[in-house]
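Input record, target 12 of the design panel.
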């Protein structure tokens, strides 16, 4: 299964962006993780079917209601067979 790593910047901390990412991933059957970075960005790794990844990228670009995504840079990553479920990292 393909994986995609993304860095999201803008108003993405303190607006439930990580929880939105987790709910989106679980709804689409994706595995991976999400976490806040000290510089104010959020990083996430999502893995699953291409169609689900595309839907997730669209959702993350929009973000939850109070978020304001300025940029989202994503890159493909190799499959990680150890990924199971989706977690919010601290």
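The sequence produced for target 12 reads:
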């Amino acid at each position: 299964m393909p994986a995609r790593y993304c860095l999201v910047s803008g108003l993405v901390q303190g607006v439930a962006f990580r929880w939105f990412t987790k709910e989106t991933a679980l709804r689409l059957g994706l595995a991976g993780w999400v976490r806040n970075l000290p510089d104010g960005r959020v990083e996430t790794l999502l893995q699953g079917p291409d169609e689900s990844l595309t839907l997730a990228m669209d959702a993350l670009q929009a973000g939850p209601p109070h978020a304001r995504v300025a940029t989202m840079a994503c890159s493909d990553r190799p499959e990680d067979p150890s990924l199971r479920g989706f977690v919010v990292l601290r």
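Residues 50-62 form the longest helix (13 residues).
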